[in-house]
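A.,

Following up on our hallway conversation. Structure tokens first:
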């Protein structure tokens, strides 16, 4: 992703993996991901930042044009469809939601413990995108729901054993230090 010349916060987390935030009225800052593979671009829970819509869209247009592969819009919840509609139309993108069969590319859906929500494991980037299942507050990861907690913690425990490098939440800064310990705290293994 080309860093836009804008006030929008855009961070490269790894080659081909970018995180940006947008300020939403009543919600605060929410994160979205840009994931580039050899064959496609996936935009996870994308929100066009109202702080600089045009600058951000110009930069994203350059990336999509440069890549020339298809664009996928990947949503961790159907609740995000309205905010993604502009990008779906702009890029003729297909849309993946939690009730769709398989997410595109390198993404694997993980149960989020809330009906209609998922998290994503990005194996090539050793990243968990937790969507709204986990959030970071006070430097700690927290589970957003106690509903079906067991299903979520089973999925997290499997990732603790992997070569996980980061957790990106919709709310809060990414976790990049001692990621396994942060997940053990959420899974109740501390």
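Then the amino acids I'd put at each of the 190 positions:
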């Amino acid at each position: 992703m080309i860093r836009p010349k804008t006030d929008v916060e855009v961070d490269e987390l790894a080659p081909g993996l970018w995180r940006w935030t947008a300020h939403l009225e009543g919600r605060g800052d929410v994160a979205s991901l840009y994931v580039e593979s050899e064959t496609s671009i996936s935009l996870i829970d994308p929100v066009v930042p109202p702080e600089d819509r045009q600058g951000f869209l110009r930069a994203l247009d350059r990336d999509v044009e440069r890549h020339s592969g298809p664009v996928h819009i990947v949503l961790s919840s159907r609740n995000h469809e309205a905010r993604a509609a502009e990008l779906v139309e702009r890029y003729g993108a297909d849309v993946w939601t939690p009730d769709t069969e398989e997410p595109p590319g390198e993404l694997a859906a993980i149960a989020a413990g809330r009906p209609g929500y998922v998290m994503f494991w990005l194996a090539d980037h050793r990243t968990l995108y937790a969507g709204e299942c986990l959030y970071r507050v006070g430097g700690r990861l927290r589970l957003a729901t106690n509903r079906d907690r067991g299903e979520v913690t089973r999925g997290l425990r499997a990732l603790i054993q992997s070569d996980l490098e980061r957790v990106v939440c919709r709310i809060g800064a990414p976790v990049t230090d001692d990621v396994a310990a942060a997940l053990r705290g959420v899974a109740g293994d501390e």
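Residues 53-67 form the longest helix (15 residues). Curious whether your intuition agrees with the design.

B.
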